[in-house]
Design brief:
Largest sheet: 6 strands, mixed
Helix content: 25-40%
Order of helices and strands: EEEHEHEEEHEEHEHEHEEHEHEHEH
Strand order of the largest sheet: 10-9-8-11-13-12
Number of domains: 2
Oligomer: single chain
Distance between the termini: 29 Å
CATH architecture of the largest domain: 3-Layer(aba) Sandwich
Length: 286
């Protein structure tokens, strides 16, 4: 049964007062990488005065930080699907300390690169917070326009992958080809990697031991909080693991990922309609 909108009479509520809030960015808090509803910004800033707010995103650190600052969040940020946990940038512009860092095993990364080349899928990786690709393609621009970053081009990704990258991303515009890419990568990489999605065109590959829930668990543990004491709000397959472990799970009902709704206790409207603000107001966190 699909959970109901959190604004509806009789919608589910947490059994106990939440001790922390976990927020996804794209598709949940912001739309198309550019729009933050004023109500949502105000509501999240108000929530930070009441409880720890953790941003958990697939974005790289430098891409997430402008939104983290805009929301007034001061807790360490979960990036790259949980491959990196890092403190926020301070007032002097210094990057925060690294609390957790996991890289994709080189064998799995190199196999991903090989498959992408064989099937003509755009693929990129990350090297010291810089997005790195071999060619400038429309699919790459589809990604960088949302992320708000520039790419560095290299003749071959092998040296980057051998040094260690937190994540690789294939960007594919055809939905059927996205599904084929995910099936093939999961089959070929097996237990060596985790293949997931944060947006429809993105197929994301991280180390098998990387997840948002494990990274959020670390951030909350430092505060003496268990994940079962949190409220989590997300929208995509890469949020399922943390939605399942949170004490109260809220999913965006935008018609894109019906399966994600099965992991939620309540739903909210998309970010263009201020759904996160609806949730925080309904839960008394503003």
């Amino acid at each position: 049964m699909t959970p109901v909108d959190i604004r509806e009479p009789g919608a589910a509520r947490p059994r106990a007062a939440p001790r922390a809030l976990i927020l996804d960015l794209d598709g949940t808090t912001i739309s198309r990488g550019a729009f933050l509803h004023p109500r949502t910004a105000e509501a999240v800033r108000a929530a930070t005065a009441k409880l720890p707010v953790v941003v958990a995103t697939g974005r790289q650190y430098v891409s997430a930080m402008p939104w983290v600052h805009e929301l007034g969040v001061t807790e360490p940020v979960v990036c790259y699907e949980g491959a990196l946990v890092r403190g926020v940038v301070d007032v002097a512009g210094n990057w925060g300390p690294v609390l957790l860092e996991r890289t994709l095993p080189a064998e799995a990364a190199l196999r991903t690169l090989q498959l992408a080349r064989e099937h003509n899928w755009h693929v990129h990786a990350y090297d010291r917070e810089q997005l790195v690709a071999e060619r400038d393609r429309p699919e790459l621009r589809l990604y960088t326009d949302v992320a708000g970053v520039e790419a560095r081009f290299v003749a071959g990704l092998e040296p980057v992958l051998e040094r260690g990258t937190p994540k690789m991303v294939c960007v594919i515009e055809n939905p059927a080809e996205v599904r084929r890419c995910m099936r093939l990568l999961r089959h070929e990489l097996g237990a060596r990697a985790r293949v997931t999605q944060s947006r429809e065109p993105y197929v994301e590959v991280v180390s098998a031991d990387v997840s948002k829930s494990n990274a959020c668990d670390l951030v909350c543990w430092r505060r003496g909080i268990a994940l079962k004491e949190t409220v989590c709000i997300g929208d995509a397959p890469n949020d399922i693991d943390v939605l399942d472990r949170a004490g109260f799970a809220i999913a965006v009902d935008a018609g894109r990922y019906p399966n994600v709704l099965k992991h939620a206790d309540a739903t909210i409207r998309p970010p263009t309609d201020g759904g996160v603000a609806d949730a925080l107001e309904a839960l008394g966190l503003t």
